[in-house]
Specification:
Largest sheet: 8 strands, mixed
Radius of gyration: 27 Å
Order of helices and strands: EHHEEHEEHEHEEHEHEHHHHEHHEHEH
Distance between the termini: 71 Å
Strand content: 15-25%
Oligomer: single chain
Structural class: alpha/beta
Length: 448
C-alpha cells in the first residue's frame, strides 16, 4: 500500500493517479532584464603562456580571477564565466539595483587598480569594457552559460573589450548615458565592430566624480504636486534659523517619488536668501569598504576643502586649518581634530571609544551651527550603517541651541529596521511623499 499522500511510488517512481502534473516553469524559465556586463581580458597573456605548463598558468591566473571576483561582488555583481584570462561578469541579474551600470563601472575601475597593483612575475595589464542593455536570462541556476545570458549587449561588449586601451575601462553609449554624472569620461573615436552596421560611440571612464547612486536629472520643470510638502520643509528651516534650534526633517518615499527634487527646491529657496547659510551634503553608500560614516565624512571633507586625491597628510592639515575659526580653544581643537581625522582619510583608524568619538563629532556640528546657520543633508538614509543612524539620531539633543537643520532622505523600508527613528527626537518632522494623484501626474507630464 502506498501512503495516502504519496505522489510517486517509492520503489519505481511511477506517478500516482492523483499526482498533479508539474508545470514546466518549475524546472526552468526565462525573463528579460536590463543588465550591465563587464568583459575583462589580460593583455598578451596568451602569448606569454605559450608552451607553459598548465599548472603554472592556473597558478598565475588564480589571483587575477580572485581579484576580479572580489571587486565584482563588492559592488553587488556576479562573475558568470571564466574563460582562461577572460572574465564575464553581470550586474542586474539575478538581483536588480537601480544603479547597476554605475556599480559595473566602479567595479571596472577597481579591477584595473587591483591588477596594476599585483606583484610577482611580469606586470599584468588588462582591457575592460562595460555595456548596458537588455538580455534574456535563466530564472534558475547558479551559473549562466551561453544559453542562460543571451542578448546583443553580451556579444557587443565582448567585441568592445578588444577596443579598450590596456589599463582602461571602455563603456558603450547606454552605460555612458546613465552614469555620465557619476564619472569623468573621455570621449573616444567611434568604432565599427563585426555584426554592427553603424559605428559605436565609446567613452573611457577616467574616475568617479564623488557622487554615488542614481541622480535624477533636473529637467527644469515646475514643481508639481509637492507645494504643501515644500512649504512645510521651508517652515522648519525658517524656524530653525529664527529660534536657533536644531531640527531633523526626514523625507520618506519610494524611489523616484521626488525626495531629491524636494531637497533641491529647499536649496533654491536658501540660495535666494541674502544671509549666508552653510549647506553641506553627504550620501550613504549601498556598497564598498570603509563606508560606515561615509556620508558624514563627505560633509567634513566639503567643509574643509579636502579633495579625494589629497594624501593623508594634506587632508589632516586642511582639517586642522578649517577648525581654527570654529573652535577658539587649542586643546579642544586638537581633541576634535584627532577624532574627526579618520573621516577624511587620515590613514589611521580611530582609537577613541564610540561614545567619545560621537561627542567630538557632535561638538564639531555644534561649532558649525554656532558660526552660522547650517543645513546638513544626508541622502539615502536607508543604506546607512546602524552606527551612523545612532550618531545622527542624537544630533538635535547634542546640538541644542544652534541653528542647525539635518535633512535626511529615506525609503519607507528604513522605518522597518529603525521604527523609533523620529519618535524619540523632540525636534523631528517626517514628510512622507505619496505618489502623485492623476491630476498632478497629468500636469507633470505636460510640463515635461
Amino acid at each position: 500500500m502506498l501512503p495516502s499522500d504519496a505522489r510517486f511510488c517509492p520503489s519505481c517512481g511511477t506517478p500516482t493517479p492523483a499526482a498533479p502534473e508539474v508545470p514546466a516553469l518549475e524546472t526552468g524559465g526565462e525573463e528579460r532584464k536590463v543588465v550591465s556586463v563587464i568583459f575583462a581580458d589580460l593583455v598578451g597573456f596568451t602569448a606569454a603562456g605559450d608552451g607553459a605548463d598548465p599548472e603554472d598558468i592556473r597558478r598565475r591566473l588564480s589571483p587575477y580571477h580572485e581579484a576580479i571576483r572580489q571587486e565584482v561582488e563588492r559592488y553587488g555583481g556576479r562573475v558568470e564565466k571564466l574563460m582562461g584570462d577572460g572574465v564575464l561578469a553581470v550586474f542586474g541579474a539575478p538581483v536588480v539595483h537601480e544603479d547597476d551600470a554605475e556599480r559595473a563601472v566602479r567595479a571596472g575601475l577597481r579591477i584595473q587598480e587591483r591588477i596594476a597593483g599585483m606583484a610577482g612575475g611580469s606586470p599584468l595589464s588588462a582591457r575592460v569594457a562595460v555595456g548596458t542593455g537588455e538580455v534574456v536570462v535563466a530564472i534558475e541556476g547558479t551559473t549562466m552559460d551561453r544559453e542562460g545570458l543571451v542578448g546583443d549587449v553580451v556579444n557587443t561588449t565582448s567585441r568592445l573589450q578588444h577596443e579598450a586601451p590596456p589599463g582602461t575601462v571602455l563603456v558603450d553609449e547606454a552605460t555612458y548615458g546613465v552614469t555620465r554624472r557619476a564619472f569623468r569620461y573621455e570621449e573616444r573615436p567611434s568604432v565599427v565592430v563585426r555584426g554592427k552596421a553603424e559605428p559605436l560611440a565609446l567613452w573611457l571612464a577616467i574616475a568617479p566624480t564623488g557622487r554615488y547612486g542614481a541622480d535624477v536629472e533636473d529637467a527644469g520643470v515646475t514643481l508639481v504636486g509637492r507645494e504643501t510638502e515644500l512649504s512645510l520643509l521651508i517652515d522648519v528651516f525658517s524656524r530653525s534659523v529664527r529660534d536657533a534650534t536644531s531640527q531633523i526633517v526626514t523625507i520618506a518615499g519610494e524611489p523616484g517619488v521626488g525626495k531629491s527634487r524636494l531637497v533641491r527646491e529647499l536649496r533654491r529657496h536658501i540660495d535666494e536668501i541674502p544671509d549666508l547659510i552653510r549647506w553641506r551634503q553627504g550620501r550613504c553608500l549601498p556598497y564598498g569598504e570603509g563606508i560606515t560614516y561615509w556620508a558624514f565624512g563627505e560633509i567634513v571633507k566639503a567643509e574643509a576643502g579636502i579633495l579625494e586625491t589629497d594624501p593623508p597628510g594634506t587632508a589632516v592639515g586642511k582639517l586642522r586649518v578649517s577648525l581654527e575659526p570654529l573652535l577658539a580653544d587649542p586643546d579642544e581643537r586638537t581633541w576634535v581634530a584627532g577624532r574627526v581625522a579618520p573621516l577624511v582619510g587620515s590613514g589611521q583608524e580611530g582609537t577613541a571609544e564610540k561614545g567619545e568619538q560621537f561627542a567630538a563629532w557632535h561638538r564639531y556640528l555644534t561649532a558649525l551651527g554656532e558660526q552660522r546657520p547650517t543645513v546638513l543633508v544626508i541622502e539615502d538614509l536607508h543604506w546607512a550603517d546602524p552606527n551612523l543612524v545612532e550618531f545622527l539620531a542624537d544630533v538635535p539633543e547634542t546640538t541644542r541651541g544652534t541653528p542647525l537643520l539635518l535633512v535626511c532622505t529615506a525609503r519607507p523600508d528604513f522605518f522597518e529596521s529603525h521604527p523609533t527613528w523620529g519618535a524619540r527626537q523632540r525636534d523631528s518632522v517626517t514628510i512622507r511623499l505619496e505618489p502623485l494623484d492623476a491630476d498632478a501626474t497629468r500636469r507633470l507630464l505636460d510640463e515635461l
